[in-house]
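Design job #97: recover the sequence.
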């Protein structure tokens, strides 16, 4: 099993339906506010690696057009069925992103995605995202795991989120289940990609972006990082 197959199946990563709903509501609220900040008006936005996108309507309300892309076919099918009546939303597979016209996007969001990608995959997406963005358009890379951060840090963030969200008992039981789950096994065998702040800024600069780290991460886990990268007008230099 690889990460794509894992997310295409029923997973124990959410300890309860309340956890899942609050997670996606929080992400959507953060993204809606960030979209309004980065591109006032009616921007065209791509959320690459959107997951279940249970509150995507909040983000779509801020957009002229919202593309939702996920690699897991079962996830895409559920998202497409749920948002079928929302004329602002189009659901895409990763290979369909290429059909988006170059230079047409105001914002690209990749939240909680990079940890599941190889560096080669990440570099390829940076080329694709830069091509699709307008000059000055924003790339939002969120939930980036810093080097040296382990599972205990994530568990602590979950328990704090659960305590404020009213699902602490479910979180404690869920952490016990996760310890025996495929997620824990995959995390041990495939690993999760981690980046230092300076390393990520250097990668984005080399890819043709002017980047900064945002003071707060999107979502509840503040041990992780969010970066805002603006597409520069200068051509990317060959390595």
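Job complete. Output follows.
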């Amino acid at each position: 099993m690889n990460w794509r197959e894992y997310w295409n199946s029923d997973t124990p990563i959410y300890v309860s339906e309340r956890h899942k709903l609050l997670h996606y509501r929080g992400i959507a609220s953060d993204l809606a506010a960030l979209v309004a900040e980065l591109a006032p008006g009616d921007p065209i936005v791509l959320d690459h690696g959107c997951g279940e996108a249970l509150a995507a309507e909040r983000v779509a309300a801020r957009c002229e057009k919202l593309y939702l892309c996920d690699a897991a076919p079962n996830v895409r099918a559920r998202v497409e069925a749920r948002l079928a009546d929302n004329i602002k939303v189009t659901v895409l597979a990763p290979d369909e992103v290429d059909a988006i016209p170059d230079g047409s996007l105001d914002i690209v969001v990749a939240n909680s995605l990079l940890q599941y990608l190889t560096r080669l995959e990440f570099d390829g997406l940076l080329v694709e995202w830069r091509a699709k963005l307008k000059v000055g358009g924003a790339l939002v890379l969120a939930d980036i795991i810093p080097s040296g951060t382990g599972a205990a840090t994530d568990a602590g963030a979950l328990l704090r989120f659960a305590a404020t969200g009213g699902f602490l008992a479910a979180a404690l039981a869920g952490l016990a289940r996760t310890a025996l789950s495929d997620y824990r096994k995959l995390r041990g065998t495939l690993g999760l990609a981690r980046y230092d702040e300076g390393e990520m800024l250097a990668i984005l600069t080399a890819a043709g972006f002017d980047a900064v780290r945002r003071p707060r991460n999107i979502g509840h886990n503040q041990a992780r990082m969010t970066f805002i990268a603006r597409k520069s007008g200068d051509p990317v230099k060959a390595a």
